[in-house]
Structures are given as structure tokens and as C-alpha cells.
Amino acid sequence: MTARIACLYVPMFPLAARLRSEPELLNEAVAIIEGTNGGGHVVAATRRARTKGIKPGLSVAQARSIVPKLIVRVRDAECERTAQESLVEVAETFSPRVEDAGAGVVFLDVTGLERHFPSETDLAKAAIRATEEVNLPGRCGIAASKLASRVAAELPKSPVIVAAGQEADFLAPLPLTRLTPELDAASTLQRWGLASIGDLARLPEAEVASRLGALGRELHHAARGIDPRPLIPRPVPQEFREGMELEWPIVAVEPFLFIASAALDRLAKRMELQGFACKRLELTLMLEPDGFYARGIDLPAPTRDVKTMLTLLRLDLEKTPPGAPVMGFSLVAHPDRPRRAQLSLFGPAALSPEKLATTIARLVTMLGDDRVGMPRSVDGYLPERYAIGNYAPPPPPDTRRDPQSSRGLMATRVFRPPLPVEVITRTSDGETQIASLNGAGDLSGTVRICSGPWRMESGWWNDTPAAREYWDVELERGGIYRVYQAAPSAEWYVDARYD
Amino acid sequence: MNASELIRALEKERRNESIPTTLAAFDELLGGGLPRGKMVELIGRRSTTRFSITLSALAAATSMGEAAVLVDLGDHLDPQLAEENGVDLQRLLWIRPKTLKQAVMSAEMIAATGFQLVVLDTGLHPMPGRRVAEASWVRLGRAAEAHGTALLISTPYALTGTASEAVIVAAKSRAQWLGRGRSPRVLAGVTTELRLEKHRHRKPDVTTSLTLAVLP
Predict the structure, then answer these.
(1) Smallest Cβ distance to B85: which of A352, A411, A479?
(2) CA atoms of A340 and A342, how far apart (whole Å)
């Protein structure tokens, strides 16, 4: 089977990447410049700017003299990197074999995909639509080689499909600049009187090679549609990254979260494309004048819920503010497979792990991470002891179970921390009895019946020993409490109510 | 009928079932236990076995393999004691809000996640955060109905208004002591009167007696 390679191409990539991060600039006169704001030159401009005469190569001063209200943005490496990753991820939804060729170009092996699409044109149109869904203008070309597919993708009328074996015929009428736009040899070839790729292909290979060397031989092969370079698939990504450099430093949390929200939204969409969810979120802030601020947030479970991630980010920043104006940021999401629920015919319904993870993350953001989880019993004697762990319930049983019969035991409500109380005791027949309690709220009144003491000692072998004498106390007005006197302070506390 | 249709039909059937607390006196008042998709309010002041009933409900649900939630406003749960009472801690989600508003919001979020039993214990009187708008309880009840969650609100005084399916009042609790005169006394148990104050489909004002032991 002849290999078929598709090329996804984003024209004016630096501009497209910037507009993806700042979509509100789409209908403005915007120029992207290379270099500093004062001494740079234009590399790309929006349609509105181009119609007013802004073109690549102009200096910023020249461009501003043509369009005084021109919005100028310096090329943003972070924006371009994330846009490129996004483009690669779109390609990966069509084929597992994808090569990242950089700067808005991605090759994908589409051999055998004819079973899923009526024609290669439909496949290319679907790829363009998918690229546009991640806010990048896409073009697509399909051919038997990387070179031909790239040239096809660069043509303005997209998609372009080059039939197998027709690469040389397809390339022949095109100008030489289409072959290798950046090649210095193009001017030499023009001096020879060559106008199109076909003109070069018709020259004898040995003659071109003797005059231009190895480069000439490669160029001649390319002109004849011969491209031996194989597609080199990229490895599976370990992380998803979004970010941008800011025009003006940000000093408040709210404006930053506004921008971060859009970045998280893009991250969530990219992870959804790959079937991933975020397990850990890392934030790096570029600070003014220089310096970095890095934070890592572990999510309770993999999630793609933007609101949850944003709330966690807000809480983290409010807890530990960066302490300097922010000039740029990058967000890295470490992916994990979202957990799937298994439906059951005969047993109890299982919880949806993704829903559960999102809910727990929201609860954690609302209440704090030590206030939501699975209770765990702890060895010891102090009734107020407890531990809380991550909630990860075992799968429900396959068949329905009958409930275990209740043991019919009275429970106690533990007071954390134990509540201080004044106690009046009386002694009759050599026995000490509690006569009344005087504490806050319901913890006051005459004692009807009491029993005790029961002695308890705990932790005498470590730094926090506890020695207590416990009593059960029923008040005349109602309520049965567990009261203790702590040694050596002799202070009284209520640590639980029978309820 | 394919498998997904069958599962949906079974889930629909499960909606009509109850989650028993296995405390006969309590289940009898509700006609078998806590109804799925409905909100039941349990009101009781000092030592009226309110917390014991919530733990029994959690123990029964988790022993059936269901995931259950305790929204514990007063932070009163003793995990060791809960385990002794038969609660499978691995299936229990423990939420410790600080205010009543947080507690109601948490319960609503959790009900929408698909838990089959949610117990909201508002702790002691006076509860932190005081009252919330009655509309919150209506919304909570609707969330439970939409997702087939059995919802038990355990509170020292009436909170849910018209939103609940049933209201049970626990009152007149009486401690039982062993030992008389000069012999040492031991708390043996507590007997409480449970009264069905309101039910949408059953005759109210039915009373039962619940006795729980302190020692196994």
C-alpha cells in the first residue's frame, strides 16, 4: 500500500498562535513583530492590518506611520509552543503516527484511514474543522510524501489532494519559492532563467549537482516529487502546557485568574481530545523584574472541570501570593486516565469516578482538604482521636447484599476539642459523686444519676501523656454526658454526649 | 431489551425501594426504612438516640455495598465507634463543614454525584451558621429526588419545613442504669419514644419505642 501523508499547516503561525490566546484581537489591526517593540520588524499581520498596507518586513516605526492605531505584539514563544502542541494533539485524534515539524506544521500518517472517511477530501476537511475548533486557522494537504503534502497544504485553496504518483506533475507548475521558501539557491536558479519547479525538474540531475553540490541534488529530487524522508512519529506527551507572556505586569489575583481561566479551558479541551484528565497542575509565574514562582497542586482525583481547577488555583495563590508583579505564566497539567464506572445488573450502582473526583475537589476547595475524606480508625484510647484519608471506595459488590442487622448500640457524639465545664462534687459514705455541671449551653444543671470513675491512661510512654477519670452523668433536665477530670490539672471536661 | 435498557429499568425499580436502618422501631414508622429519592427529617434534642439512628443507617447502607455520606456539621463522628457499630468506613465519605450553609451545599453537591444515602447531621443546638433559606431545603429535596438518593436530616429542631417526605420526632428519652443504692452504677442503655409527626403517604402520630444498649 502506498503511504499517504497529510500535512496540517497553520498560515502566519506567530499571528495565529497569538490570536488563539487573545481572540478579542481577531478583528483588530494587529501586527506581530520579531525583536523589541522599538527596533523590531513585522513578521505577520491580521487581515485588517494587511488591507491597510502592513506587510512582513516593515519596521515598527514604518508600520505605525501607516496605521497609527496598530496594535503591536512581540512574538510569544510560550503562545507558539502551546499552539503547536494543540495542533499536534488535533492531528493525534486522526492518526497515532504524528510528526511535529514545528512552527505550525504537523505531518500525520493517514494510510488506511479511507475506511473511516468517504474520501481523502472529507478526511482533510474534517482535519481542518478540528483545527479550527482549537482556535487555529488550518489548511491541509494530502500526498504520498512529506514534501508534496506540505506544498499542497501551503496553497491558499485548501484542502488539496495529490494523487499517488502525481507528485511531480502537481509540483511542476508551482513557483520555485514553494519548494523551499527559505533557500538562498532560489535566486541563483532564477538567474538561470528557471521560473517553476517543473523547469528545475527538467534539467539533468548531474548538471545541477555539479553546479550546486549536494544541495542541488536534493533540490532536483524534491522538484521531481522524490522525498525519501520518512515520517518520524513523536512520543506520547507526558504533560500538557499552556501559558503566555503578558504585555503588562499583573499585581492582583482576579485579573490573573481571568487569563488563567482561558488557559485552563484550553488545557481541558486538549486533554479531552486525548481522553485524559488532570491529576496534577503546575503553575509557573514569571515575575518582575526577574525570577520565577512555581507551585504544584495535586488534585484529589483526575478531573477536567475548569471551575474546580480554577478554584484550587485561586486558593493556592491566596494562601501563598507570589509577592511581585507577574509578567507571564505557564500552566502544566500532568495527565492521567479518568476512571470509568462499571455498570452493574445485580449489585448496587457504582459511583461515576470522574463525577466523584470533581465533587470531592469542589468540596475540598469549599471546606479545606482536611475536612473531606474517608474516616479512619486510629489505635489508642483518647475518644477524640481520628484520622481522615483520601476517599477511594472499593467497587460495589456484584450482587445485592442484605443489610447487616444493627447491633442496637447507643452511640456517642464526640466533642472536638473537649468542652471545659465546672463540676460540683459531693461526698457521701466515703464515695465521691458529681452533684452538678456548670458549662456552656446545655451543659448545665443538676445531676440526676452519675457513675464512675473509670480511669484511663494513655501515652505515658511519649511526650503527650493523658490520665483521665471518666464519669457518665445524666442531668435532671435531660442529656447523658461523658465527663472527665484530667490529671494533673484536675480540670473537668465534657468529651461526649450519649445520643 | 439491551443491557443498558435493562440497567435503566432496574435503577428505576430501585427508586421505589428503601434503605433500612435495621432499627425496627424506626423503620416501622417509615414503612421499611429511608425511602430512596426522598428527604426524611429526624428531630431530637438531648440524648434522644438521634446520632445512633444515623450511624445505624450508615452501617446498614455500607454493609449492603452502597457508598454513603455523613455531612457532620458538629464534627461529632468517632470513627472507632462507627466501626464498632458496623459502619464500613471504606465506603463512608465524611464531610465536616463549618456552617449550616456549607453543610446544605455539600449535601446537594453529593446528592447530585449519585450517592445512595446522604446523612446530614446538624449537630447540637445552637448550630453554627443558624438557619438557611427554606428554598435551600426544597432544592436539596429535589436533588435527592432527581438522583434517587435517600436523604436523612438529623437536627435538634425542625429545619426543612414542607420539603421533607416525613418528619420523625425523638423525645422523652430515659436512661437505664444498672445498680442501686450503694452498689456501683453503670449506664446500661437509653429508651426513646419515636413519633411520626408528618408523612406524605402514611398516617401520622404513630409512636414507637426504641431502646439502645450502651454495652454490647
Answers:
(1) A411
(2) 7
Q: Looking at chain A, which residue has its C-alpha nearest residue B214?
A: A410
CA distance B186 to B178: 5
How far apart CA B213 and CA A407 sit, in angstroms, is: 9
Q: How many CB atoms lie within 10 A of CB A252?
A: 9
Asked if B47's CB is within 8 angstroms of A499's CB, the reply is yes
The dihedral through the CA atoms of A318, A323, A328, A333 has a sign that is negative
The cell numbers describing A446, all together, are 443538676
β-bridge pairing B34-35 and B39-44: unpaired
Residue B215 CA to residue A408 CA, distance in Å, equals: 10
Q: Closest to B216 (Cβ–Cβ): which among A407, A475, A477?
A: A407
| CB contact (8 A) between residue B48 and residue A499 | yes
- DSSP-derived 3-state class of residue A51: helix
- pLDDT band with cut points at 50, 70 and 90 for residue A180: low
C-alpha distances in Å from residue A469, one per residue of A92, A494, B182: 69, 12, 20
Q: Phi then psi for A456, rounded to 5 degrees?
A: -140, 130
Report pLDDT digits (tens) over A42-74.
888 888 888 888 888 888 888 888 888 878 888
Contact B80 A394 (CB under 8 A): no
Residues 6+ apart with CB under 8 A from A147: A167, A222, A225, A227, A229
Residue with cell 544541495: A215
CA distance to A293, A377, B73, B96, B193, per residue, from A368 (Å): 23, 21, 14, 9, 38
Q: Does B9 touch chain A (CB under 8 A)?
A: no
Joined together, the cell numbers standing for residue A142 give: 494530502
A394–B21 C-beta distance less than 8 A: no
Q: What does the alpha-carbon distance between residue A448 and residue B46 come to, in Å, rounded to a whole number?
A: 14
Question: Rounded to an integer, what distance in angstroms lies between the CA atom of residue A474 and that of residue B186?
Answer: 11
Q: What digits encode the pLDDT tens for the residues B148-188?
A: 899 999 999 898 888 999 999 998 888 888 887 666 688 89
- In this complex, the residue of B22, B23, B65 whose CB is nearest that of residue A396 is B65
Note whether A451 contacts B46, CB cutoff 8 Å. Answer: no
Query: Given pLDDT bands bounded at 50, 70 and 90, which one contains residue A371?
Result: very high
Closest alpha carbon within chain A to B44: A499
Measuring CA to CA, which residue among B39, B44, B71 is closest to residue B58?
B71
- B109 φ/ψ sector (left φ>0, alpha ψ -120 to 50, else beta): alpha
How many residues can be counted in chain B?
216
Task: Kindly give the pairing relationship between strand A30-34 and strand A292-303.
Answer: unpaired
Nearest to A221 by CA among A108, A107, A140, A145: A145
Neighbouring C-beta atoms of residue A55, cutoff 10 Å: 14
With a pLDDT cut of 90, the percent of chain A lying above it is 12
